[in-house]
Amino acid sequence: MNLTERNQQIHPVTWIPTLYFAMGLPFVAIATASSLMFKNLGISDTQIAFWTSLIMLPWTLKPLWGPFLEMFKTKKHFVIFTQFLTGITFCLIALSLPLDGFFKYAIALLAIVAISGSTHDIAADGIYLNVLSTSLQAKYIGWQGAFYNIAKILTGGAFVYLAGQLEIGFGVVKAWMVVMGIYGLIMIFLGFYHVKKLPSGGRANSVQTWNDGLATLWDVIRTFFQKKSIWWFIIFIVFYRFAEGHAIKIAPLFFKAARESGGLGLSTSQIGLVYGIFGAIAFVAGSILAGYFVSGRGLKRTLFILCCFFNVPFAVYAFLAITQPTSLVIIGSAVVLEYFGYGFGFVGLMLFMMQQVAPGKYKMAHYAFATGIMNLGFMIPSMLSGYISDKLGYKVFFIWVLIATIPSFLVSFFVPFHNPEIDSQDSK
């Protein structure tokens, strides 16, 4: 049986959920869970926001080493290798927490997780793009987004709740050692699972030497920037998540902060409960429904609607900062609204990159380029968010987040569509 036949016999449902869960876990562990961990271990908001954002740089730079992945074996091999590497590194992070000067060791190890995770993403997206037809890509985009963000909910929700419960009996350090260890074991388990269940994604055959790799990299960059309306596309990708980049780091810190300093004064377990229970179903529902919504109407006609779903719910954080409710039901309901909109709206950006930016000779590499730019647009406001929040206070900061949504609305309304196949589907 050849690789093509083998790939076709593996049903997408058996590997898309686990593959994109494995993609989401390390990203969210750095972006969200580690922030709460460092907060509870006494690190300042400014340091947390800056360093946990800076070490996410590999997700922006990953296109630079993407072509070299074509030199060896299959994309499946890189997925499995990086899953094992990420799992082992999380276990090392757990062991670093009791040490003096733990912050520098943990940040360095999280940087390794970022390099491994971003490399994993290149290969994983390559499998998705190479194995699935255009129609199947649209059909399963909701599932892809849902399970990527189930990782977000579990990593920043259920396991944070567990950490909060363990803090009560065992202390902060041991609690987060357990959680980081669990992250590691999950990634190792997924690596073993994908040995059997993951399609190969195609063998390496186009790049044979480092010089070929450099030549391919240059051709990837050159042809990417030669795409029609590419600067419009880049502006769209950068600004679609601009407000989210500000809010995502500060929201859990705002939930944790004392009420007298403008926060909600929630415990670690309550934060995990809000995200892991109230937010989970809403996010998954939003992601899956958006996939069917777009496939029935076309991306061109639905993009601005998706943008509205993505950005308008950020108003709930301004509401919470202004009113500082004590009811967990009110707080949870606000999170449900925000997470449903986030899941629904995020699909628009992913499909746009997949269907309008990626098509061409270097589909996988150009998609990696687009996601790298996306993460740069997310990373820069995230790095600055702690400083801005410290200067403005939570109430004014979340009002600023609402102002920061304006560029997203503008670029979603004006961005052009050029892919003929997708345009013809949208016109039906």
What radius of gyration results from the CA coordinates?
A: 21 Å
- Structural class by secondary-structure content: mainly alpha
CATH class: Mainly Alpha
Question: Could you describe the largest sheet, including whether it forms a barrel?
Answer: none
Compressed to H and E, one letter per element, the order equals: HHHHHHHHHHHHHHHHHHH
Strand content: under 5%
* Count of discrete alpha- or pi-helical segments spanning 4 or more residues: 19
Domain module tally? 1
User: How many E strands?
Assistant: 0
Explained architecture:
With 428 residues, this protein is mainly alpha-helical. The chain has a single domain, classed as Growth Hormone, Chain: A, CATH 1.20.1250.20. Helix content is 80%, strand content 0%. It contains 19 helices and no strands. The radius of gyration is 21 Å and the shape is globular. The N terminus and C terminus are likely disordered.
Helix and strand arrangement:
Blueprint: H1 3-9, H2 16-40, H3 45-54, H4 58-61, H5 75-96, H6 102-131, H7 134-170, H8 172-197, H9 210-225, H10 230-240, H11 242-256, H12 268-297, H13 299-311, H14 315-323, H15 328-357, H16 363-392, H17 394-403, H18 406-414, H19 420-426
Helix pairs in contact: 2-3, 2-6, 2-7, 2-8, 2-11, 3-16, 5-6, 5-8, 6-16, 7-8, 7-12, 7-15, 10-16, 10-18, 11-16, 11-17, 12-13, 12-15, 13-15, 13-18, 14-15, 14-17, 15-16, 16-17
Outline of this structure?
By secondary structure, the protein is mainly α. The chain has a single domain, classed as Up-down Bundle (Growth Hormone, Chain: A). The protein has helices at 3-9, 16-40, 45-54, 58-61, 75-96, 102-131, 134-170, 172-197, 210-225, 230-240, 242-256, 268-297, 299-311, 315-323, 328-357, 363-392, 394-403, 406-414, 420-426.
